[in-house]
């Protein structure tokens, strides 16, 4: 049987007090709606239809991707009305899974459980018992515990408001049945809206034995209506990520102080200190140790490498047994081989640094190709930019660059060359020789230091 996923995302999100539509707000660096789309994909639907509205084309433009159909709900007349807008797109499927674009943590295992109910029934609801059910639609059952209907908070009697089992809004239903019930919806209720929840009583009247399943955790069905709830779900999500990392053999100094905004894969015995932030795709091999306050964005880091406190590494490939930081910055398109040392206040940009080379203090190395076992002294700068174009610096194996050297690119320093400290190198320096450019040091005889004039 073919499945269609339908995501409702037309709501306004007034309580976010934001210029951008609610479903574009980010959780773990990814829009809320993108989380729901990814989870919908994981249950392998034939198609995914998204009902959008508030914010105009911004949502479909931002999240455009193959396999998604966007349907505009120009007027927001309720959840039932939203589903009606999408029905013409769902004529090819026989099951419909309804999700909310602002309920980001729903899991694919919960959805699989919900969908499997359609083997026995034409309608299955995801419900949950809440200590405080205020605001939600309540599940009304009969004496035999069979579901009878859903009553919205605003339409509920005081007794119905005491019911703690609530409607999460997420449900699975046979398409032909849904179509029939939707045609009979009206907006005769407290909010003058077309309630999708009214189909429950219709299903009961049609003799459907409605199934209810519960999510594995409450967070899965929590919606984001304001920034406080967004922050809460962000923490829940990060806690889950931290647990997965620990299960996979990583040690976290504090599981509540790590932020993963992307995909992190870790080998065995990886150590992550407090306040590490991961963005994009990051791969850490066995024994990697990451110090406190480190930002890693799209990096691969080899076995046993240590990244010390307050370093920022982006779009970089780092070999094994390297030592980076504290306070190092490795910028995009950098490749460090094995056993490379990058020390404090060193910036590496679009450069290759080969095996065993050391750049330990206060240097800028950009657009460079640094050979093996090179030593670059403190304060060395590759002057790669002439104000219009970038130029390359090539440093051969075993070269030794004295401190406070400026290498004016394009320039080549030969293998085994030594550059005297304080040099400005604007011509190629030959292999195995000492090259230096320094004004001769002089001492002035009889010179006296000026003294302050006495006040008159
Ligand atoms: C709805 C349910 C309620 C349930 C609650 C769970 C109905 C009538 N009520 O209530 O039983 O407990 O969700 O959170 O269904 N949306 C549209 N177009 C619309 C209206 C809503 O796309 O015209 C979307 C919203 O963007 C949101 C979802 O539908 O993602 C739910 O809308 P919301 O207004 O939050 O529903 P509630 O009234 O809170
Ligand atoms: Ca809501």
Distance between the termini: 103 Å
CATH architecture descriptor name of the largest domain: Alpha-Beta Complex
As residue ranges, the low-confidence spans are none
CATH hierarchy, class of the largest domain: Alpha Beta
Helix content: 10-25%
Q: Which structural category fits the helices and strands?
A: alpha/beta
CATH homologous superfamily title of the largest domain? Spore Coat Polysaccharide Biosynthesis Protein SpsA, Chain A
Bound molecules: uridine-diphosphate-N-acetylglucosamine, calcium ion
Mean model confidence by pLDDT? 97
Outline the biggest β-sheet.
12 strands, parallel
Q: Provide the CATH topology of the largest domain.
A: Spore Coat Polysaccharide Biosynthesis Protein SpsA, Chain A
Strand content: 25-35%
In total, the number of domains comes to 2
Alpha carbon gyration radius: 31 Å
Figure out the total of helices: 8
Description:
With 456 residues, the chain is an alpha/beta fold. The protein folds into two domains: 3-221, Spore Coat Polysaccharide Biosynthesis Protein SpsA, Chain A; 227-435, 3 Solenoid (UDP N-Acetylglucosamine Acyltransferase, domain 1). It is elongated, with a radius of gyration of 31 Å. The protein starts with a strand and ends in a 21-residue tail after the last strand. The mean pLDDT is 97. The structure holds uridine-diphosphate-N-acetylglucosamine and calcium ion. Residues 8-11, 51, 73, 76-79, 81-82, 100-102, 136-137, 150, 152, 166-169, 195-197, 223 line the site of uridine-diphosphate-N-acetylglucosamine (UD1).
């Amino acid at each position: 049987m073919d499945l269609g996923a339908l995501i409702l995302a037309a709501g306004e999100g007034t309580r976010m007090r934001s210029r951008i539509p609610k479903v574009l707000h980010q959780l773990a660096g990814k829009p809320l709606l993108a989380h729901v789309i990814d989870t919908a994909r994981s249950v392998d639907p034939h198609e995914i239809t998204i009902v959008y509205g508030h914010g105009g084309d911004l949502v479909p433009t931002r999240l455009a991707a193959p396999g998604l159909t966007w349907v505009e709900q120009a007027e927001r007349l309720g959840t039932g009305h939203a589903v009606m807008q999408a029905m013409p797109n769902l004529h090819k499927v026989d099951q419909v899974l309804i999700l909310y674009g602002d309920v980001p943590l729903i899991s694919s295992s919960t959805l699989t459980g919900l969908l499997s109910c359609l083997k026995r029934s034409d309608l299955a609801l995801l419900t949950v018992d809440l200590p405080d059910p205020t605001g939600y639609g309540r599940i009304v059952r009969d004496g035999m515990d069979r579901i009878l209907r859903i009553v919205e908070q605003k339409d509920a009697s005081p007794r119905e408001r005491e019911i703690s089992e609530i409607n999460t809004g997420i449900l699975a239903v046979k398409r032909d049945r849904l179509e029939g019930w939707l045609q009979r919806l009206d907006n005769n209720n407290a909010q003058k809206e077309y309630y999708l929840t009214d189909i429950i009583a219709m299903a009961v009247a049609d003799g459907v034995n409605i199934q209810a399943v519960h999510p594995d955790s409450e967070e899965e069905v929590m919606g984001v209506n304001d920034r406080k709830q967004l922050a809460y779900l962000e923490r829940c999500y990060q806690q889950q990520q931290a647990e997965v990392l620990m299960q996979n053999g990583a040690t976290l100094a504090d599981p509540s102080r790590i932020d993963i905004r992307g995909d992190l894969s870790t080998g065995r015995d990886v150590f992550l200190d407090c306040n590490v932030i991961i963005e994009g795709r990051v791969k850490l091999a066995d024994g990697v140790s990451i110090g406190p306050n480190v930002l890693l964005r799209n990096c691969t880091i080899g076995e046993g490498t240590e990244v010390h406190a307050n370093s920022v590494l982006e779009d970089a490939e780092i070999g094994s047994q390297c030592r980076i930081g504290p306070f190092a910055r490795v910028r995009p398109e950098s490749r460090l081989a094995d056993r490379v040392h990058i020390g404090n206040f060193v910036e590496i940009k679009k450069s290759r640094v080969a095996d065993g080379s050391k750049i330990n203090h206060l240097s800028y190395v950009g657009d460079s190709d640094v050979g093996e076992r090179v030593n670059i002294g403190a304060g060395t700068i590759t002057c790669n930019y002439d104000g219009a174009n970038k130029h390359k610096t090539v440093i051969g194996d075993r070269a030794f660059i004295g401190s406070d050297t400026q290498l004016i690119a394009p320039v080549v320093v030969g293998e085994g060359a030594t550059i005297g400290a304080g040099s400005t190198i604007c011509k190629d320096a030959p292999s195995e020789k000492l090259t230096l450019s320094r004004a001769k040091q002089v001492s002035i005889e009889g010179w006296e230091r000026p003294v302050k004039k006495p006040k008159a």
